[in-house]
Amino acid sequence: MPRSPEQIQQEIDAARESLAATLDDLAFRTSPQRLKAQGVAKAQAFLQSPPGIAVVSGVGLLVTFVVTRKIVKAVRRR
Question: What pTM was computed for the model?
Answer without folding.
Answer: 0.56
